[in-house]
Recover the amino acids of this structure.
């Protein structure tokens, strides 16, 4: 009886697999012209790397937000600004992916864009320390964006054998450079100035009022008051 039951189960499994295979829909790849795809390899590589840069920044800000949310730290104002910053960095990563899609440059290896970014630190002694780290983080992101702009204004990669060097690499990607300069650098510079100002104010408050200064500063952050 057990042997008969086993045969029935095996037949049923084969039938299900066969039916599933018949139901699968496989569409042929479209024969789309590629002349409109004009980004050169150095720019593509830099932009793909920037996705990782933005995601690492997002994860670092998440670690900061989580630290200041702990009951043993309890600085909800700091937690708020760092969680907000994490969302902004994630949005930057999405914007870069969307740009690559618009330019026809995300047709393969999409999974390599998102790896396993880890924060450099998971705890901070004071709010000043965290703000200084945040400023350093933003500065590093800005430098990376400036590197992309330099690369895409005058790509310098050597040409491969059999490839027209002038066609492939003597190329100024005006649109990408304008996009990064207008949409990203403006926000980066404003963010850096804001963090520098917050750091300066908090240091002065802690110098005159000690831990109470950080507590009052945190309340201002939470309420969105000017600093």
């Amino acid at each position: 009886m057990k042997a008969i039951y086993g045969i029935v189960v095996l037949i049923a499994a084969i039938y299900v697999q066969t039916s599933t295979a018949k139901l699968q829909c496989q569409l042929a790849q479209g024969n789309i012209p590629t002349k409109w795809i004009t980004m050169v390899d150095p720019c593509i590589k830099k932009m793909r790397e920037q996705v990782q840069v933005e995601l690492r920044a997002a994860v670092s800000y998440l670690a900061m937000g989580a630290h200041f949310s702990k009951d043993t730290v309890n600085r909800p104002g700091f937690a708020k600004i760092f969680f907000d910053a994490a969302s902004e960095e994630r949005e930057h990563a999405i914007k870069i992916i969307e740009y690559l899609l618009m330019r026809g440059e995300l047709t393969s290896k999409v999974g390599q864009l998102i790896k396993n970014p880890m924060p450099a630190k998971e705890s901070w002694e004071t709010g000043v320390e965290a703000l200084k780290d945040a400023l350093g983080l933003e500065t590093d992101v800005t430098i990376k964006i400036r590197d992309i702009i330099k690369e895409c204004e005058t790509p310098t990669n050597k040409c491969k054998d059999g490839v027209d060097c002038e066609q492939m690499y003597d190329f100024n990607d005006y649109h990408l450079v304008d996009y990064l300069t207008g949409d990203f650098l403006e926000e980066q510079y404003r963010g850096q100035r804001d963090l520098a100002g917050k750091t300066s104010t908090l240091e002065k408050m802690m110098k005159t009022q000690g831990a109470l200064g950080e507590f009052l500063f945190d309340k201002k952050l939470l309420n969105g008051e000017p600093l």
Summary: The helical segments are 2-23, 41-69, 76-102, 127-153, 165-169, 174-209, 211-223. The radius of gyration is 26 Å.
